[in-house]
Write a structure and sequence with these properties.
CATH superfamily: Creatininase
Number of domains: 1
Distance between the termini: 53 Å
Oligomer: single chain
CATH class: Alpha Beta
Number of helices: 7
Radius of gyration: 20 Å
Largest sheet: 4 strands, parallel
Structural class: alpha/beta
Length: 287
């Protein structure tokens, strides 16, 4: 069904418009938007990894929420800014401008419906800057809108206890943690017999990259033909379920905190007003 991993009663598109109108205390309801991508993840994982992980974690988090905490998931954004993987078939990429415009327009729709708390749970490492830009633009247009751009893996979780030191240092794509989580969320899409180990070369500039990760711009094909950047071989479904549970518990707590959060509302200036584009229209320019 369309609600995917989400409890049906916490899936916003299942509500009618009249039910949305009648929701109490809409200003403190948390709307959660999973954002992902459709891009290659090596020969052993599907191209939907980032979307599956963000949507799956959000759904499991909402399932753990206390009944008294109002929060709803939106349908995930399944296409992202994935140019670094465009050399591999199956990758579908938007430009940064298109993704930013899409996020802004979705955010405007959320605001127009009366909601004032919006959380982006982004599963793709190639687009956090777009999420941050969108959140800032929405805030500049609406001084009472709290928009939080975050990353699926930003909250506390247990993945680190399963990863080697090298994996923690250099893995970036389709490695141990993502593979384990996919074995828990969508095991039928994982083909471990095709998995290979592939790490990027260490970036030998301690000043530019203290941890040795590439400090320059890169594309996935820079690191070889597999599309993998890490070691997926040790991943197991048991590890994936433990990681998923830890992420879901943390995100449920974070959503609860956002529901209770009372943060500064910016008063509109008396000398002008912000237009939809973010430009200020001065009162002297309007007859």
């Amino acid at each position: 069904m369309l609600h995917g991993y989400n409890p049906p009663h916490r899936y916003l598109p299942y509500l009618s418009w009249t039910e949305i109108v009648d929701l109490p205390d809409k200003e403190n309801i948390v709307i959660v938007l999973p954002t992902g991508a459709t891009e290659q993840h090596g020969p052993h994982l599907p191209c939907a990894v980032d979307t599956v992980i963000s949507a799956g974690v959000v759904g499991h988090a909402l399932d753990r929420l206390p009944a008294e905490v109002p929060a709803f998931a939106m349908a995930p954004i399944t296409y992202g800014k994935s140019e670094e993987h465009l050399h591999f078939p199956g990758t579908v990429t938007l430009s940064g401008e298109t993704l930013l415009a899409t996020m802004n327009e979705v955010g405007e729709s959320v605001y127009r419906a009366g909601f004032r708390k919006l959380l982006f749970v982004n599963g793709h490492g190639g687009q956090p800057q777009v999420m941050e830009m969108c959140a800032r633009e929405l805030r500049l247009r609406h001084g009472d809108f709290i928009v939080v751009p975050s990353f699926t893996w930003r909250v506390p979780h247990v993945a680190g206890q399963y990863l080697s030191d090298k994996e923690k240092k250099l893995a970036m794509h389709a490695g141990h943690a993502e593979t384990a989580l996919m074995l828990a969320l969508a095991p039928d899409t994982v083909h471990m017999e095709r998995a290979v180990v592939n790490y990027p070369p260490v970036f030998e500039s301690p000043l530019l990259s203290p941890d040795g990760r590439p400090a320059c711009a890169w594309s996935a094909r820079d690191f070889g033909p597999s599309g993998i950047i890490g070691d997926p071989l040790p991943a197991t479904a048991e590890q994936g379920h433990a990681i998923l549970d830890s992420l879901a518990v943390s995100w449920a707590a974070a959503i609860t905190e956002l529901h209770h959060l009372q943060w500064a509302a910016r008063p509109e200036p008396t000398w002008g007003r912000a237009s939809h584009t973010g430009h200020v229209e001065h009162s002297s320019s309007r007859a």
